[in-house]
Amino acid sequence: MKKLINSPESVVTDALTGMAEAHPGLLRVDLENKIIYRRQCPTPGKVGLVSGGGSGHEPLHAGFVGYGMLDAACPGEIFTSPVPDQVAEATRAVEGGAGVLYVVKNYTGDVLNFDMAAELCAEDGVEVATVLVNDDVAVKDSLFTAGRRGTGATVFVEKIAGALAEAGAPLAKVARIGEEVNARSRSFGVALAACTVPAAGKPTFDLSDHEVELGIGIHGEPGRTRAPAAPAADIARLALDAIHADRPLSGGNLVMVNGTGATPLAELYIVFAEVAAYMREKGAEPVRALVGNYVTSLDMQGFSITVCTLNDELTRLWDAPVETPALRWGR
Amino acid sequence: MKKLINSPESVVTDALTGMAEAHPGLLRVDLENKIIYRRQCPTPGKVGLVSGGGSGHEPLHAGFVGYGMLDAACPGEIFTSPVPDQVAEATRAVEGGAGVLYVVKNYTGDVLNFDMAAELCAEDGVEVATVLVNDDVAVKDSLFTAGRRGTGATVFVEKIAGALAEAGAPLAKVARIGEEVNARSRSFGVALAACTVPAAGKPTFDLSDHEVELGIGIHGEPGRTRAPAAPAADIARLALDAIHADRPLSGGNLVMVNGTGATPLAELYIVFAEVAAYMREKGAEPVRALVGNYVTSLDMQGFSITVCTLNDELTRLWDAPVETPALRWGR
């Protein structure tokens, strides 16, 4: 294993140090508690948004902290949930009088720890609501998860709920739109090769040169099945078939073709071309797109597709200004 | 080899098809001639900016087409120069009456083919100037190159010259500022593992699990030397020593820590943390930063550091609005 790290133990702290150095105008980093804050927070009268989860999925979540998106992100160790005290600390710091929304990916540890943080904060009189993201159609109940896993739709929820919070909406409304985004979103991931967790020092699973893993989880959890390696268009169609079978594609859609860490950008665009063709065959249309590394799994080779059916309100909120390290436009 | 492609022959066309689908508001793609255009072009009275080079370095160059940066990009096949007719076609299409600037990375094929395109266009009365980017301090004369190679500074030249062109400056001034950015920029790259060209089907070089290649080229050309694998901070310092020895670090700097394709974002931030510490030791400061995949080498595992000493004018032009698939802010 070769990794560009100083030691497996210091990966998270060292990376946060670099984030603080690279984005002083956008972020403030509390290294002791491992919390990334929006430069200016709390914003009085605004609902605060807090997310977090295991590290190793960068830019999720720290890269989405900033104007129009998250107020704070709480990274755990690699593929490990943040702890309740950490989340509670972030919650108190971003509370501006209008309550705080948690955006939580559906993994058992994350759900438990964010719930405990919410309880701790309730004792201090901070109102907390939670949007649970569970968009991955690949498997129900998995390693680490009861129910469906939360993956790519997290980016959509954070952006759209963040925009509504920025516009001054109350907590219940911000939570409701986050739930709506999640309900309209579906994802499916594919791995061509596994990732290597620094502390483990070897790939999380073995995959022969002639196979891909369909429905892979973002920590390398098993998917639905393995299939022979095939042209990108065929693999994309297997992913899209799973999404379409779960929630038929229709209307105008926000589409993310996400790289899992070691996938060249050109290959993601090759997948996007097939996604667009497939959607049109089903009478749907991609009207907004993200193509790149947004929810990675360290150095996994692969991709995921996330589709969210838009309406006018969601489109407007998606298009609203955002200024974070990883998503930035219109301001 | 597993690649997310349809066939080695169709990689470039398939990826361009996906780009056109993903960014219809920003780009227009001429699939036949393999040219990516800014959605609206030419812009009457504005200097047109054209760049290009071998594919496999995405988002360079196509991802930098749009408002405030390039008017057109001409991708060749993987690691292969674009052809003169292709560049000439792009030149004529973006010429808005104020001439056209080429931004060319210093590789023999690119230099020859852009020169030939400029001659073809001169016959049609189109005035062309060229900025040759040669920022890589690693080696002088290399596979494919006479003199120094052009790498990360290309992004800085395209952004800053693009901003000045957008502001209405004449061709000579736009060319001059591009040259100034190049003169103030230095880069050094490191590989932990080689990339695999689809048509070749195997890694471009072998590197043991205990070695890194210092001064790697963006096509996997040999660097200065191999060194034992070491903590990220130590490797970053070797790269910075090379840069500092060539042009002493000072003042406020634009710094890019660039991933070569398969490097997790968190690892790039770990490198950035060390870059910031090193610069301060030398009395310099990172005041603007890019951290991510900007000039990749397919799925190479590694990074490069590019430093450009800013002044007030360059800072203002760097901060000016830009709206491309890969760089976007402030508009």
Task: Tell me the layout of helices and strands.
Two copies of one chain form a homodimer.
Chain A (H helix, E strand, L loop, with lengths): L10 H12 L4 E4 L4 E4 L9 E8 L16 E7 L5 H11 L5 E6 L2 H16 L4 E6 L6 E3 L2 E4 L4 H14 L4 H13 L1 E9 L17 E4 L10 E4 L3 H15 L4 E9 L5 H17 L2 E9 L8 E9 L2 H8 L2 E2 L4 E2 L2
Helix pairs in contact in A: 2-3, 4-5, 6-7
Can you characterise this structure?
The structure is a homodimer of 331-residue chains. Chain A has 331 residues and is α/β, with parallel strands linked by helices. The first copy, chain A, has 2 domains: 9-183 and 319-325, 3-Layer(aba) Sandwich (Rossmann fold); 185-309, Dihydroxyacetone kinase, domain 2 (Hypothetical Protein Tm841, Chain: A,domain 3, 2-Layer Sandwich), CATH 3.30.1180. Chain A has helices spanning 11-22, 84-94, 108-123, 153-166, 171-183, 232-246, 265-281, 312-319, and strands at 27-30, 35-38, 48-55, 72-78, 100-105, 128-133, 140-142, 145-148, 185-193, 211-214, 225-228, 251-259, 284-292, 301-309, 322-323, 328-329. In chain A, the strands form 4 sheets. In chain A, strands 1-2-4-3-5-6 form a 6-stranded mixed β-sheet, with helices on both faces. Chain A has a 6-stranded mixed β-sheet with strand order 11-10-9-14-12-13. The longest helix of chain A has 17 residues, at 265-281. At the A-B interface, helix 1, helix 6, helix 7, strand 13 and strand 14 of A face helix 1, helix 6, helix 7, strand 11 and strand 12 of B.
